Amino acid sequence: MDKFLKEISGEFVRHRYFYLVILSLALLMILTLPASKRGADGKEYLRWTHSILYDQDLHLLNNLEAVGGGYKLTPTGYTFERVNIGVPVMWLPFYGAASVFLSES
Q1: Among 57, 55, 52, 60, which residue's Cα sits nearest to residue 89?
Q2: Nearest to 48 by CA among 78, 76, 87
């Protein structure tokens, strides 16, 4: 058993970058898991991204006109969103770059 553990740990040390890339991809895939059975569409992700970029807040009521869609209010007065915030944060640099390039053209 001790020999087996040494071989496994040696294998991990030799290929550690490969395993770290696989682990990173798995963590990124977890961010895209739907928050409900129905899942989410691009509009709901876009609400978060638009709000973070232009308003610098997470209060989505003022973004519903820009992106569209229905909403429910939580007891605290914020809109209830079914989607995780991980994916919009990941798309934020690309959305910001596209908005800069589109405003310049």
Answers
A1: 52
A2: 87
What's the pLDDT at 49?
A: 83
Task: At 89, list the tokens.
Answer: 């944060």
Q: What is the pTM of this model?
A: 0.49
For residues 45 and 87, give the distance between their C-alpha atoms in angstroms, rounded to a whole number.
7
Cβ contacts of 41 within 8 Å, gap of 6 or more: none
| 57 close to 47: Cβ distance less than 8 angstroms | no
Helix (H), strand (E), coil (C) string for 54-90: HHCCCCCHHHHHHHCCCCEECCCCCEECCCCCHHHHH
Decide if pLDDT at 38 tops 60: no
Using alpha carbons only, what angle is made at residue 40 by residues 35 and 42, rounded to the nearest 5 degrees?
A: 140
